[in-house]
Amino acid sequence: MAENRDGADQGFLAAYFPDLLDMPMFHPPNNGSRLEGKFRLPFGYQMDASYYYLRLKWRVPCGPNSIVTFPGASWLKPWYWWSWPVLPLGLSWHDLRASTIGYEEEIPTLIIQTTFYITLMLCVIVSMWRHRHEDDTPLCKFWVPKSLWAEYGFYIQGFIEKLLTPLCIVGSFILPMTMVPITSHPLVGWTLSMFGALVLLSATVHVLRLPFTATFTPWLLSLGCLVVMASPYYRNGLIRALAIVGYTAFASPFLWWTVTQVTKSKTVRVEKEPSRSQSLIMKIC
């Protein structure tokens, strides 16, 4: 690693191009004319050479908004799709990427995932239509042997209600997010993630026979949170933070209501198989 000779933020450039230390400071000309020569970049041009230069092959448009960098947590860098709308300028970074290297690497994976979710949604709709006249017994009951359900049906039902149901709902949000390519465009990433969560929640509602409104409440609240965070009408960051805090306070009672509804105990109908003596008596009668 090269030594940062000037102690400034652009140690890479200063170390490999020492002549820049003696060059005048660059300021964009007001008339838009093209300058000739070498210039030092001011503090506003924080350029990461390992990505912006080597990856873009030195073809970087020069301007105060051409390069957008974010200090802080490594998992909130602008090339990760989930960093927006946490960091509102992420879209500006992706606009620059779309005009340079593009998204050819991510498109096949996005198409495959979209096809998978659409197919799964169609399967869920068909299954819901076929089982529309049945009771509220979870479909997973039919995957358990009758003898095992007769002995432990009460405990299996309790496991489904208290543990499996919350895990399935949380997993319906986490799994689609982990499947989206991390360098996708934020709008595409969030759209596919929310659509995947909608499909998986629909499957969860159908298989576990959960209340429709309560199960989809977290999805609606998540969508509202994205709208609140991405709104462009905040005058400053403080108002934006207050809006997010206010929305969190608004959503908390609905989330608690969802938890109480999806974990509510149901009446379990356990039909024990008759013993041999009972079967003999029934035949005699």
Overview of the structural elements:
- With 285 residues, the protein is mainly alpha-helical.
- It folds into two domains: 11-76 and 83-98, no CATH class; 107-262, no CATH class.
- The chain is built from nine helices and no strands.
- The chain has helices at residues 11-16, 49-53, 90-98, 107-130, 146-179, 186-208, 212-230, 237-262, 276-284.
- It is elongated, with a radius of gyration of 29 Å.
- The termini are far apart.
- Keywords: Membrane, Transmembrane, Transmembrane helix.
- The chain crosses the membrane at residues 108-129, 152-175, 187-210, 241-259.
Briefly say what this structure is.
With 285 residues, the chain is mainly α. The chain is 54% helix and 0% strand.
Topology, element by element:
Layout: H1 11-16, H2 49-53, H3 90-98, H4 107-130, H5 146-179, H6 186-208, H7 212-230, H8 237-262, H9 276-284
Helix pairs in contact: 4-6, 5-6, 6-7, 7-8
The radius of gyration over CA amounts to 29 Å
Q: Give the averaged pLDDT, no decimals.
A: 75
Give the helices and strands as they follow along the chain.
HHHHHHHHH
Question: Would you count the extended β strands for me?
Answer: 0
The major sheet is characterized as:
none
Q: Helix content range of the residues, please?
A: 40-55%
Strand content: under 5%
**Distance, first to last CA:** 92 Å
Global geometry = elongated
Uncertain residue ranges: 4-10, 49-54, 64-71, 267-283
The count of domains is: 2
Helical segment tally? 9
